[in-house]
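Page 42, continued from yesterday. The earlier attempt failed because a stray header line got pasted into the input along with the sequence. Redoing it now with the clean sequence only.
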Amino acid sequence: MFQNKNISSLFFYTITYITLLAYIMPIHPFMPSVGLDPSWKWVMHFSFVNNLAFGEEIFFTFGPLADFWFPSYFFDQNTYFIAITIAFIFASTIFAALYFSTHTLQTKQKVFTFFLFLTAIIVGNTYVWFILPLLFLLIYFTKEELITKNTLLIFITFFLAFSVLVKFSHFPTAFITVLLIDVYHIYKFHKFSYHTITFFIFIVTLFVLSGQQIDNFSAYFFGSFQTLSGYSEAMSLYGPSFMVLVYSLLSILIFSFLLFKVMLQKNIETFFVIMLTSISLFMAFKNGFVRHDAHAYSASSGMLMVLGTLYIYFYNKIYFSNIEKSLVKYFMLFSILFSIMIFFFYNFTSIFVEEINKKFPPHIKEEIKKEFIEKNYSNIILQHGNLLTSIPKKMFSTTVQNTYDRFYKLPSIFSSSQKKELIDVYAMSIQTIKTSLPLSEIKGSVDIYPWDQAYILASDLNYTPRPVFQSYSVYTNYMIQKNIAFLQSDKAPDNLLFSIKEIDNRLPSMMEGTTWLEIFSKYNVATTIDEFLLLNKSETAATFSLEEEKAQTITFNETVKVEKGNKFIFIAFEKTFFGKISEILFKAPIVYIQLTFDDNTTTTKRLIPSIASNGFILSPYIDTKEAFAKFDSTFNADKYVVEFLLYTTTNNFYENAIELSMKNITKLH
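This time it went through. Structure tokens are written below.
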């Protein structure tokens, strides 16, 4: 009987370990392709290979080790075996931590706990990194033998530091966790603890090993904090509100229940555990619902990880009555169903959009996109019911195929033949991109607006990126000034590939529009290459002046008249106290600008307050590359703004008084 139990246990842990490897190892390395996300991934790889100074020459939400955002990995034949080795150690560390945290549990509880964590990892994908602070917590409070415990803590601390250089949004949770554990250790044992110091030593060491200069370390941190500070206002999206509501209710219920139980015991250790897990849950909430699209995966994944952590920790520490145990089980099962529902909701949406793109002309796609934005799901169901009914079958077959591929390819991941196959796929991907947009006529250094760096990198041109290299990410004063200073410097590229695109229905000039006058000043339109204008650096720079027309205070929903002409405008918003707190706890509401043109047509676009305060071209309305080229060559345009008004989706977030400064754009020479 005892032998059978050992065999069953070995089988269970083997299957669990293999599953972890299958979903954490980079089984399907990322290959070059065109688009917004593929392009930033390639730029991160380019920056790593060329040792660009993060925080100075380049900065983004990701850091110098972004290539290794497992299970995602940008393929490079020179780092492939290094990457899979690191991923193997990473997955093994997670497994070891889970094993030593759960091996004293009964079999049913053990299976249930691993099911929670594996579901979280599969659903969350790259959100797997947020498991590390929770594992650190579990191992620190485990009763394991000291050498095993300290060894695991060192490995977890190493990967916590590694995660900060992969993506800086990992830093707050990682830092707060190690810091509070040290505070607890000093309070409890009256001995100094070195976890926080070790954490920073690992960060600095990895920063240098990644090719960065130590004297650039502070610039990396400052630049990365800039990307975090403006994210909520600039990048927020609103999705299905029931997800936020259910997540919030589940979180409040479980923590209220546990706090009540803990208060009866008056135990400082359990108080620290609840505090740290609540921080992780809050960060999952922010990661998932500030930009509420498929990012919601991370919210559901984070919830399951936190529940698994609490289940492991409290199972043998607090007495639960049979009724309470049943409540906890039902609560956790409901949370699992909620997470799986989010997973399938966004998978369904993704496949639906993919099918729409395949089967419908552009004008129909735009109508459907508008229905999605306005959440008119009933109209979509009525008009495209046949298409919708075919999606579940495709979802099932895709999920089965992906799962099969992960397990089937896992044994060969270290083989030379697998690497050779990937090298061939990489070469084919490069050739496909080069063929889709030939750029052989470009000589000298080049940058591209607003994104699509893949075209430049595939053609092996002299890519010279501005510090914040994708226009939608330039949303704080610091970022804007960095990019303007770059254009004014000797480093400014000889050529720009320029197109007008936007995300989230933004006003086109919210896509780095503050820098447009600098571009008009330094560059001239040379030709058109497909969807892009090719701009060449001018030998003699043009000069523009901004002459004050009027400064005034306006309010939301107030119509503002605009004299016909070329206008540059600064719009300064002030957050209320409620707004500042709301942004910290959740996110900023969306601000819209409704424009009326000289042909009596109107349009409504999203305005980003932090960008608007730095100024942008209000009129003429430049929303196409043709309009941009015409203004560049003639200082004239086809469409001028004659009035506008501002409104927002939530009252009391911003002060109603808005400071406005409108200036005439004059071209001196």
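Notes: The longest strand covers residues 544-555.
Reminder to self: strip header lines before submitting.
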